[in-house]
Protein: NAD(P)H-binding
Amino acid sequence: MIVVTGATGNVGRPLVRALTEAGERVTAVSRTTLPPADLFQPETLKPAVDGAAALFLLVPGVGAGLDIDALLAVAKAGGVERVVLLSSQAVGTRPGSAAYAPLRVIEDAVAGSGLKWTVLRAAGLASNAFGWAASVRAERTVAAPFGDVGLPVPAGPTS
Structure:
């Protein structure tokens, strides 16, 4: 079984769908699912990870304030053998940035957990484009942190 955190959002919802369509057993969790799971209260994840083989970890924001060690301990106790963390390209491209320091700590904890792990450092996700709507309408511009670097943004589904 695979546990997907953030299962009601723009990443989690399609991931749950893709995994179930591929025949995987999935437990979808978020703060609004029943039972709810709040990553900032790791013990609430216990029922979801009991007997799970893998955990897809999508942390809110940059994960500031998250007790990642406690969360990984709950996952291990439940039988989780692999963690896949959705991180950010900024952890690698701006390693000294205080804004992304919490994600660096989470990445390091996952890598040092003794579990099998994968860290996905996503660039712009297609859903991020909604944040650009106002500046595109008003100024016909998209602001990015690197003025001289093109950002890869995946295309949405085609019909």
